[in-house]
Amino acid sequence: MLLLAYLLVQRLSRSPFGRMLRSVREDEHAAAAYGRKVFFAKYRAYLFGAALAGLTGALFAVFISAFNPSAWTPQELLVIYAAILVGGRGNPRGVIVGVFVVYIGLIELTRFLPSPASRPDFGPAMRQILIGLMIILMLRFRPEGIFRERPGIDQERGLATRLLRPFRVRAAAPPAGRVAAAEEQAAGDRGAG
C-alpha cells in the first residue's frame, strides 16, 4: 500500500495539477493572474489529502483492530511533524525517509536511554527534547529537508532514465571548421540580401 500511495502522489505531483498546486503555493496572486482558480485548487488538494488520510486511518484501524481519537497526543503529532520536516516537504520520497530517520533513528534508539530510579519519565522527556531540537536544527540549517523539492528536475530523473543514462547515445558535434564556415556563409548571405 505504501508503494501504491507513493506512486500515486509522485504521479500527481508531476502532473499539470501538481504544477498548478506548486504555483498556488508559491504565489497565489500570480497564479490567479494566470487564470488559475486558487480556491478550487486548494479545495481539491484538501480533498485529495483528506481521502489519502482517510484511507491511511482506515488501514491503521484495521491493523490495531481498534481506534480511539483521544490516543493522538500532541507528542505523537510532534513526531509526525518532525518526520515531515526532516524528510522534506513537497517530496514524497523525503517524507518516507523522514519517517524512518525519526522513528528508527531517534525514537527507537532513545528508547533504551537509562532512567534514574527517581525519574522514570526521563527517557520519554529526553526523547521529546531531542525531537524538538531536531526540528529547530533542520529548520535553521536545512529548511528544505533531507530531500528538497526539485520540480523541474524530477520529471526527467525517473528510475528508468537513471538506469539507461550510461547507454544513451549523444549526437556528435560538428567539427569546429565546419561551424565557422557555416557561420561565415550565413553572415555573407545576410549581407548580400
Quickly describe the structure:
By secondary structure, the chain is mostly helical.
The run of helices and strands is HHHHHHHHHH
Structural class by helix and strand composition:
mainly alpha
**Rg to the nearest angstrom?**
25 Å
The residue-averaged pLDDT reads 78
The helix content, as a percent range, equals over 70%
Q: Tally the helices: what do you get? A: 10
Distance between the termini: 67 Å
Uncertain runs are: none
- Report the count of strand segments: 0
What shape does the CA trace take? elongated
Q: What about the largest sheet?
A: none
Percent strand equals: under 5%
Question: Could you explain how this protein is built, in words?
Answer:
This protein is mostly helical. The chain has helices at 2-14, 16-26, 28-33, 38-64, 74-87, 92-110, 122-141, 151-154, 159-164, 176-192. It is elongated.
List the helices and strands and how they pair.
Elements: H1 2-14, H2 16-26, H3 28-33, H4 38-64, H5 74-87, H6 92-110, H7 122-141, H8 151-154, H9 159-164, H10 176-192
Helix pairs in contact: 2-4, 5-6, 5-7, 6-7
Main attributes of the structure:
193 residues; 0% strand; elongated
